[in-house]
Amino acid sequence: MAKKQTASMGRRDFFRKAGLGAGAAGAAVVGVSASSVKAEASETKTSGYRETDHVKKYYELAKF
């Protein structure tokens, strides 16, 4: 009878595959995050910084 090869992997193989999987998952998350940030940036059309009344009041009170 031939010995059956077990499907277990060694500790080093486990950590090697776990590291590769974590790296791939991290890269996928970064790719999705970057595309969603670009989409949000294009949707908001503001003219930039505006000095409103409450901001002016804060500046006035912050002076020493």
Protein topology:
Blueprint: H1 11-43, H2 53-62
Question: What's the short version?
Answer:
The chain has helices at residues 11-43, 53-62. By secondary structure, the protein is mostly helical.
3D architecture notes:
By secondary structure, the protein is mainly alpha-helical. The protein has a domain at 12-41. It has two helices and no strands. The longest helix is centred in the middle third of the chain and has 33 residues, at 11-43. The radius of gyration is 27 Å and the shape is elongated. The N and C termini lie far apart (90 Å).
Number of helices: 2
Q: How does the overall form come out from the CA principal axes? A: elongated
Alpha-carbon distance between the two ends: 90 Å
Global mean pLDDT: 74
Radius of gyration: 27 Å
SS-based structural class?
mainly alpha
Beta-strand share of residues: under 5%
Question: What about the largest sheet?
Answer: none
Oligomer: single chain
- Which range best describes the helical content: under 10%, 10-25%, 25-40%, 40-55%, 55-70% or over 70%? 55-70%
Poorly predicted runs: none
Count of beta strands: 0
Order of helices and strands: HH
